[in-house]
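Notebook, student rotation project (T.W.).
Task set for the rotation: take a protein with a known small-molecule partner, predict the structure of the complex, and write up what can be learned from the model alone. Partner molecule chosen: NAP. Sequence and SMILES entered below by T.W., checked by me.
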Amino acid sequence: MSARLLPGKPVAEAVLADVSTRVAALKAKGVTPALATVLVGDDDASAGYIRIKQKQAAELGFVSPHAHLPGDTTQDELERVIRGFNDDKDVHGLLLQYPIPGHLDYDRALQVLDPDMDVDGLHPLNMGRLAIGLPGPLPCTPAGIEALLAFHDIPVSGREVVILGRGATLGRPLAMLLAQKRPTANAAVTVVHTGVPDWARYTQRADILIAAAGVPGIIQPEHVKPGAVVVGGGVRYEGRRILPDVDESCADVAGAITPRVGGVGPTTVAMLFRNAVAAAERATA
Ligand SMILES: NC(=O)c1ccc[n+]([C@@H]2O[C@H](COP(=O)([O-])OP(=O)(O)OC[C@H]3O[C@@H](n4cnc5c(N)ncnc54)[C@H](OP(=O)(O)O)[C@@H]3O)[C@@H](O)[C@H]2O)c1
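Predicted structure of the complex:
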């Protein structure tokens, strides 16, 4: 392996240190930031993610009221719980853990959520804000990737970024984010997907290649320009196993690369808390 590693942990630590300072400032004003969580059903992995987020919330000084709804919850009941948190003046951010059981409509539930409390940054209004450059909660994984590149001094402005995947949580919002006119973005962004069968033609010329497909091993060394920066955002979970989009052997060709584990993931969680503290600041300004 010759590539420089781009770990996400120090990025997350820097973001969370800032969040801690902001939580302390809110508490000094008598405000305890509150991040509510909603879990539907008994999926072990989802319950595990909620526990991790609640532990982190407590460490940062948030309170995190939690609603655990049974797997047979109706759409109406789920929306009633979300509206209840929306209307609770002591709650500032709300996280609906994804996925929810198949009989429920996640997009509809998301639309019930107060957009200013949307710590995932995935509400349609927040996607719209991102599209036209208005301030608001940013989708966590795209924001985490921008922060990761900036933290590791990877120049983005003016460079060619190719994103494999145009999904709503990662590829699409990331493309909007990295094309914005800011020093840590400002890139020439190309998005490729299944509609572009010869997508390798594009990835091979990328200065920065970002995998956002969720197809294990889809990015192989022959898809990478020698010396390029490779960011692995897409992953598939098989039980506890993490199967990344980027094959490990890409490290032999890339100039810099996120590690197989501990790359983009920690930055995503950190951005969730950045959105949560910002929601508390807005609500109590
Ligand atoms: N690291 C983290 O913290 C984190 C957080 C959130 C999401 N993720 C991961 O990010 C990935 C993307 O999430 P998402 O919700 O945006 O996913 P998604 O909606 O499933 O989108 C996947 C995208 O990849 C494209 N794609 C799939 N197979 C392809 C192939 N063989 N060739 C070319 N393009 C292909 C799809 O193309 P079409 O549009 O043409 O179908 C689609 O645009 C997932 O793996 C998810 O687990 C990671």
